[in-house]
Amino acid sequence: MTKHPPLAGPGLFDPALLSHAARDAVLKLDPRRLAKSPVIFVTAIIALLASVYAAFGIGDAPAPLIVQIAAWLWATVLFANFAEAMAEGRGKARADSLRATQAETMAKRLAHPGAPPEPVSSRSLHKGDLVRIDAGDTIPADGEVVEGVASVDESAITGESAPVIREEGGDRSAVTGGTRVVSDHLVVRVTQAPGEGFLDRMIALVEGADRRKTPNEVALSLLLTGLTIIFVLVVVTLEPFAIFSGETIPTAYLLALFVTLIPTTIGGLLSAIGIAGMDRLVKENVIAKSGRAVEAAGDVDTLLIDKTGTITYGARQAETFYPAEGVEIETLIRAARLASLGDETAEGKSIVALAERMGMRGDADRIGTLVPFTAETRLSGIDLADGRLRKGATDAIARWLAADGGALPDDVRDDVERIARAGGTPLVVAQDRRALGTIYLKDVVKPGIKARFAELRAAGVRTVMITGDNPLTAAAIAAEAGVDDYVAEATPEKKLDYIRATQADGHLIAMCGDGSNDAPALAQADVGVAMNDGTPAAKEAANLIDLDSDPTKLMRVVEVGKGLLISRGALTTFSLANDVAKYFAIIPALFLAAYPQLQALNIMRLGSPGSAILSAVIFNAVVIVVLIPLALKGVAYRPMSAAALLRRNLLIYGLGGLLVPFVGIKLIDMAVTALGLA
Amino acid sequence: MVIDLAQFALYALLVTTTAIALGAWMDIVLARPRTDHPVFARVDGVLCRSAGIDPAAEQNWLQYAAAVLAFNLAGALVLYAILLTQAAHPFNPQHLPGLSPWLAFNTAISFMTNTNWQAYGGETTLSYFSQMAGLTVQNFVSAATGIAVGVAVIRGFARRETKTIGNFWVDLVRATVWILLPLAIVVGLALVALGVPQNLMPYTSAETLSGGVQTIAQGPAAAQIAIKQLGTNGGGFWNANSAHPFENPSALTNLIEMWAILALPAAFCFLYGRMVRDRRQGRAIFAAMAIVWAVGLGVTYAAETVGNPLIADVVAGAPANMEGKDARFGIASSALWAVSTTAASNGSVNAMHDSFTPIGSLMPLVNILTGEVIFGGVGAGFYGMLSYVVLAVFIAGLMVGRTPEYLGKKIETKEVKLALLAFFAMPVGILGGGALAAIVPQAVAAVQDPGPHGLTEILYAYASATGNNGSAFAGFGAGSPWHTTAQGLCMMLGRFAYIIPMLAIAGALAEKRTFAPSAGTFPTHGPIFVGLLVAVILVLGGLTFFPALALGPLAEQFAMAAGTTFAVH
């Protein structure tokens, strides 16, 4: 599988992106757009109020200070808008590169099968239309092949340079809009009208245009709104308490206190985090059909993984030869090599290579007729002058022998079973009516996969291997690869049953699949990743689509989901913890007149009350900008136990959130005082 | 000092061990009743069937909440009627008149909500009939209501994929008959044995050595004191509450009464562990409560021991702050009682909190401001704590990379919304009620002291009402129509604005499916979670009340340290 280079996306400091985001930040001051983020909306209202105070010189605070406070409150709103615009901008850039594959083309529509093609714009196609695509044409929309076989270049989407075969029926009937037919022709039934395909949906999601809040995001916004309401109460009741204490607080100061207390940091970054999470998935060449799917990926605790291609290399390798009783090993090796010359599969080649490594050469001059491997006979071999040699699966050889009245001897059967139990695939070699011995084909487990599974296990994610192998072989490979469980002799029904049973035990499951018969399981799984080269049914049932058709991607998807949730939680915790320091800055400043002794709480030793309040407001605004890179890149996720993760993140974002503003506000205060701003 | 610390340790040990045992007992009688046991079946059968209750019929959260409200409304109306018409009832040897409508309203709400705020003095206001048939009844049933709701809420957390969370009437009967009555009988008899009066005699007039005449109040006190301590009620039989030598005659009665404050609230943690079938969960919550309690005790004890530097040279002897404290109990027992009675929403006192040093009184106030969740009221403290657990899990739970979950259940929009709703009750009542009291002229008139101490008096009064604590800071004239009405509303807010959302959360959680725990699950039983929970309580509570506290106890403390005092108007 060649890995497609990640879709192009601009760097964080791309000047075009920055200037575009800056312009968008201003446009987003439109109240209808602000209202999507309650905390920022409230901040804008307060900024407006402060501006009115500043403009009309109302209030008993120094006018320059009120002007500065109002300006920084607006800055807070703009910075939050800017964060969202940055995330959208990066998403847009990536969406544009996706969209390039979706350019308008001409399509040849057929009124009915066999009708003459009528040229129309690809944009005017509807679901259910039939189109003919000839060699060299671009496929105009997602669809399903109803007639013909053709090779299709899908590199525009997958990055895979070798063309793939698409044909009617079966698991290779799906075609994607934007890919190109290289040879032959196809008739395709459109399954998604252009503009509604998976890519279009994804483009809408990363662009933020059609972004709906995910359930978790809704809950979090609710919490932030709730906290905002509490702080309204805190600030509104502070004036009566102050009056009782013999002091009135300038309204501008109360507005400043309010904005610094409400969770503007997470409120301002929340949608940026969500968009960036989708964006990270696109970077992995995975298309999410909804934001909900990305969140669910973080919750998954069981991965169903196909053995072949993910856990083991696709091809098995010959490992050893076991001669039957009374057979010289050289005889077996020679026979195995000759019988495999007609087998062009990787397995056949590996038998020849092993035989040659073991010194068996120079037989190439033996004249005979090669019997190539076919799916029906599941045998390959050679007919020589002095006999016929065959090699193949145990049952195939047994049948071949039986046809001539021969049978497999018990010692060969024992070897066969031993190999199977060890996780290998046994092949039997026979000459005429006699079995010569067995070849041990080993499933080669990918290096590093065991460590990967151990990591996942530590993070609380179980791995389950799905294989068509018999239970003996499956158990052996499962042990070698270190998976937690396996499903042997898997059929689509068996997979579905396994998913249902595991879900009933309280687990959340992710799986990937490509065939039509995977569709029910994909739909039943909590997270289903369909391979892009899979059938339309599989793609429809899944909630994520992997453009690279790489089954190992499942693990990355889980990590991206977790990273998204962690970023949200970390910034929420950070934002709330920040408030402690802001109190220590503002409260002593507010009550200097009534209770000068409260200066004991001014542990930062801020220059003056005005400077203390202004510094807190500035910090509150600037921290949003400082955290934009973190929000866009996401908090790095490394698999570890939840307890370890929690300890680490609480330390960084909880304790950090408590301490950082003390330093930040002090530094800003020093600057404010030095510049004589307050 | 060493003796004081030993006393604290002994107390903690006593409460913890008995709480573990009581938790097990409550599990038997409330959560998994042995309905096949002949004695249990008989009592249960007679009481429930005679009231037309089917013990097996369960209610969903809405029906449960409706039953709670109906029962409490009826109880308050009966009590209101008794108090208004006091003069017409028997057992009134002092011929005390009926209460004013304001005071009757305030008192009826107060005892119905388990607050037991007293805008009156017991011996000069209430007849024995009002005390026995009115207050003591509510002492039992308001506590039983708390226990019932607490158990129902826990059922919501423990159950899965069901709609029902128990039956209020059955829980009410069982909590009263199997938990409160037996304990109250034992404690009541012990108090009688130790010298607390229990009679129906008129007050005695005695001539003192100096020739003056003293009226010695008495009455059926021991029975009511037992349940006021056990049921986190706290309303004293007499005005001086447990500082009165009849209510609390000796060191031993003091220990028993202090034990009774925390026994049942602490037991709820262990009951919880049993009901959710993971005792570590209960221990973690117990640990979080115990930590905040211990810190509060340490600070108050230290502050009272250090005393007021301004009078160190004026008052002879140790500098410790003995003002408003009973010499029999001293600093340690007074601090221990003050912190425990405010941690639990008990509200009985054996010393005057108004006379504590500013920091010494800050900790009891903070205990109340957190929403009475540091053990808290029987049942009420625990379900209040669960609202913090939901918020803590939601805020920090995302940081493990999964949708926040607790006990295998996902915490989603609905739970967050309801937990926030419960969380609103304290700020609305205390900041809202307090702010009005600070500026409305007829309300301000009730405040005795100027400056920060006066603000503390206001905050404490409204915190005590909204938190359903009921302890009085003193220095606050609570009897005016403004305050009796405002505080009555605050008491209802603090009670039902918790009960209804928490029952709704229980209903929502009971319906959810449970996900299996794994290494990737947010751990809610270890030290990290305990620390997180404590931090969330203190940060959320702190963020809400810090400005007000800065103008009250904190300003007073710093002023005191700087040698500033505030003259009375």
Question: Can you characterise this structure?
Answer:
The complex is a heterodimer of chains A (678) and B (569). Chain A is an alpha+beta fold and 678 residues long. Helix content of chain A is 52%, strand content 16%. In chain A, the strands form 4 sheets. A 7-stranded mixed sheet of chain A has the order 10-22-21-20-11-18-19, sandwiched between helices. In chain A, a hairpin with a 2-residue loop joins strand 16 (424-431) and strand 17 (434-442). In chain A, helix 4 (63-99) packs parallel to helix 9 (264-283), helix 6 (198-207) packs antiparallel against helix 9 (264-283) and helix 8 (251-261) packs parallel to helix 22 (609-633). Chain A is elongated. Chain B is mainly α and 569 residues long. In chain B, a hairpin with a 2-residue loop joins strand 3 and strand 4. The two termini of chain B are 39 Å apart. The model of chain B has no long low-confidence stretch (mean pLDDT 91). Classes of the chains: A alpha+beta (678), B mainly alpha (569). At the A-B interface, helix 7, helix 10, helix 21 and helix 23 of A face helix 13, helix 14, helix 16 and helix 18 of B.
Shape of chain A: elongated
Gap between N and C termini of chain B: 39 Å
Biggest interface, and residues per chain?
A-B, 74 and 66 residues
Radius of gyration of chain A: 33 Å
Count of helical segments of chain A? 23
From the structure above, extract its key features.
heterodimer, A: 678 residues, 6-stranded antiparallel beta sheet, 23 helices, B: 569 residues, mainly alpha, 2% strand
Set down the secondary structure blueprint:
The complex is a heterodimer of chains A (678) and B (569).
Chain A: H1 15-27, H2 31-34, H3 38-56, H4 63-99, E1 106-110, E2 118-121, E3 130-133, E4 143-147, E5 149-153, H5 155-158, E6 164-167, E7 174-175, E8 180-183, E9 186-190, H6 198-207, H7 215-244, H8 251-261, H9 264-283, E10 286-288, H10 291-299, E11 302-306, H11 307-311, E12 317-323, H12 329-340, H13 346-357, E13 368-371, E14 379-384, E15 387-393, H14 394-403, H15 410-421, E16 424-431, E17 434-442, H16 449-458, E18 462-466, H17 471-481, E19 485-487, H18 492-504, E20 509-513, H19 519-524, E21 527-531, H20 536-541, E22 544-546, H21 553-590, H22 609-633, H23 642-675
Parallel strand pairs in A: 11-18, 11-20, 18-19, 20-21, 21-22
Antiparallel strand pairs in A: 1-2, 1-3, 3-9, 4-7, 4-9, 5-6, 5-8, 10-22, 12-17, 13-14, 14-15, 15-16, 16-17
Chain B: H1 2-31, H2 38-50, H3 61-84, H4 101-112, H5 122-125, H6 128-158, H7 168-193, E1 204-207, E2 213-216, H8 221-230, H9 251-275, H10 279-306, H11 330-343, H12 358-369, H13 380-397, E3 405-406, E4 409-410, H14 413-439, H15 441-444, H16 451-466, H17 481-511, H18 527-561
Antiparallel strand pairs in B: 1-2, 3-4
